[in-house]
């Protein structure tokens, strides 16, 4: 008889139907688990190489990325002190002088842009290296398609030792209307390089998680594709601008046309 679990394994990355050797798991399955655990640990602890990432981010066409860091001074401190990851060490570089694509003159380095994008290492710097530039390019294209060519986007910001709430300070300093945070998600034993995208309208320190929207599990080919995630984000940005708010009041309607057609 063939493996009854083989067809199910093609639909999920979860560890199912692992088999057994006596009263234990087969050696191959134990080694697979240990390798996945090691990959997750490495993804969390390896620091982001900003100098290597910056050229790929700049190539998207929004200008040279700005850089910020949190008050956490190392990966070890960042993991022990989430509160420090939410506070900026210095935002002086965001005070002015930026020229985001299509941006008009205005307060902050965002130049009065409508949208700001922060690329944050989060709990998986590896995810940002693997998927950050590609996802950023897809988001920019989707925003242009949804909001028109006059959509203004601030220069991108690369944030290190960063939690999501750090970007509230960044968004306020940039002076943008809507802020997107592309951040490395907590690695699991199936995926160590997944990105999440958080949207906050009218960002400022003190915003709660209830005032954000999240698109998660972005890691093609097994997770959400760049294009699909970007389409959802663009719809949320447009909705936030119309509603004047984000979070629990804002719903993803990107699938509405497809559902209506069915």
What can you tell me about this protein's structure?
The chain has helices at residues 6-9, 27-45, 50-58, 75-80, 82-85, 125-147, 166-174, 226-243, 256-261, and strands spanning 66-69, 115-120, 157-160, 178-184, 195-201, 212-218. With 262 residues, the protein is α/β, with parallel strands linked by helices. It has a 6-stranded mixed beta sheet, with helices on both faces.
Brief rundown of the structure:
This protein has 262 residues and is an alpha/beta fold. Helices cover 37% and strands 13% of the residues.
Which structural class should the secondary elements be placed in?
alpha/beta
Largest sheet: 6 strands, mixed
Shape, principal axes of CA atoms = globular
Strand sequence of the main sheet, in spatial order?
1-3-2-4-5-6
List segments where confidence is low: pLDDT < 50 over at least 5 consecutive residues: 97-106
Overall helicity: 25-40%
Task: Report how far apart the termini are.
Answer: 39 Å
Q: What string, H for helix and E for strand, traces the elements in order?
A: HHHEHHEHEHEEEHH
Radius of gyration: 20 Å
Q: Which percent range describes the beta-strand content? A: 5-15%
- Quick one: how many beta strands? 6
Tally of DSSP helical segments: 9
Q: What is the overall pLDDT average?
A: 88
């Amino acid at each position: 008889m063939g493996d009854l679990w083989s067809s199910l394994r093609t639909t999920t990355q979860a560890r199912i139907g692992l088999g057994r050797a006596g009263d234990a798991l087969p050696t191959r399955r134990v080694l697979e688990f240990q390798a996945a655990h090691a990959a997750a640990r490495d993804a969390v602890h390896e620091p982001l190489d900003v100098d290597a990432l910056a050229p790929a981010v700049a190539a998207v066409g929004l200008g040279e990325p700005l850089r910020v860091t949190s008050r956490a001074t190392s990966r070890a401190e960042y993991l022990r002190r989430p509160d420090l990851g939410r506070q900026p060490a210095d935002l002086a570089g965001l005070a002015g002088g930026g020229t985001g694509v299509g941006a008009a003159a205005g307060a902050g380095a965002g130049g009065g842009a409508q949208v700001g994008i922060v690329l944050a290492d989060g709990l998986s710097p590896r995810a940002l290296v693997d998927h950050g530039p590609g996802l950023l390019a897809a988001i920019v294209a989707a925003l242009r398609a949804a909001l028109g060519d006059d959509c203004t986007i601030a220069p991108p910001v690369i944030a290190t030792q960063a939690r999501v709430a750090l970007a509230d300070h960044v968004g306020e300093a940039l002076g943008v209307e809507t802020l997107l945070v592309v951040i490395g998600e907590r690695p699991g034993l199936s995926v160590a390089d997944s990105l999440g995208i958080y949207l906050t309208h009218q960002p400022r320190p003190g915003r709660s998680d209830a005032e954000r929207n999240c698109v998660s599990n972005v890691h093609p080919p097994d997770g959400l594709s760049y294009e699909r995630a970007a389409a959802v984000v663009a719809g949320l940005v447009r909705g936030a601008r119309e509603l004047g708010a984000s979070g629990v009041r804002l719903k993803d309607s990107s699938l509405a046309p497809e559902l209506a057609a069915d």
